[in-house]
């Protein structure tokens, strides 16, 4: 496992934890057809919370587990900023921003953030 994969794995765990803290984890799984969406974040077929839990996090974990290369860009923070409320936003955005920067800029997340995992 590459150093980037290890960091991403930790950030995905932290993202899951943060979603649980704001009660955005215990949401119904979308219908199977919802996963066939061709719009960014599947906005036409599922909520952002569903997309994060049932699509983004599992796909990123599968890439980490396969150790077969990670995306070289990621930009989910803007969507989080538009969808989540102010209190929820801060908790989730801190992690999504770290994921975006890790994958897009190869920027190492702050140690203080990683210690929360």
List the defining traits of the structure above.
globular; 0% strand; 117 residues; mainly alpha; de novo design (two linked rop proteins); 5 helices
Number of strands: 0
Strand proportion, as a percent range, falls in: under 5%
User: Radius of gyration, Cα only, in angstroms?
Assistant: 14 Å
User: How many angstroms does the end-to-end distance come to?
Assistant: 18 Å
Report helical residue fraction: 55-70%
Order of helices and strands: HHHHH
The CATH architecture term is Up-down Bundle
Structure class: mainly alpha
**Cα shape:** globular
> How many helical elements?
5
Oligomer: single chain
CATH H level, superfamily name: YqcC-like
Q: List low-confidence stretches.
A: none
Largest sheet: none
Classify the fold: give the CATH topology: de novo design (two linked rop proteins)
Number of domains: 1
What do the pLDDT scores average to?
94
List the SSEs and their pairings.
Layout: H1 3-21, H2 48-66, H3 77-83, H4 86-105, H5 111-114
Helix pairs in contact: 1-2, 1-4, 3-4
Q: How do you describe this structure in short?
A:
Helices cover 59% and strands 0% of the residues. It has 117 residues and is mainly alpha-helical. It is globular, with a radius of gyration of 14 Å.
């Amino acid at each position: 496992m590459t150093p980037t994969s290890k960091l991403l794995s930790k950030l995905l765990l932290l993202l899951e934890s943060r979603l649980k803290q704001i009660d955005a984890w215990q949401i119904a799984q979308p219908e199977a057809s919802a996963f066939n969406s061709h719009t960014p974040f599947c906005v036409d077929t599922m909520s952002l919370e569903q997309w994060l839990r049932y699509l983004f996090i599992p796909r990123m974990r599968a890439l980490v587990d396969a150790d077969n290369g990670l995306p070289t860009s990621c930009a989910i923070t803007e969507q989080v900023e538009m969808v989540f409320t102010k209190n929820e936003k801060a908790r989730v955005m801190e992690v999504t921003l770290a994921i975006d920067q890790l994958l897009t800029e190869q920027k190492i997340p702050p140690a203080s953030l990683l210690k929360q995992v």
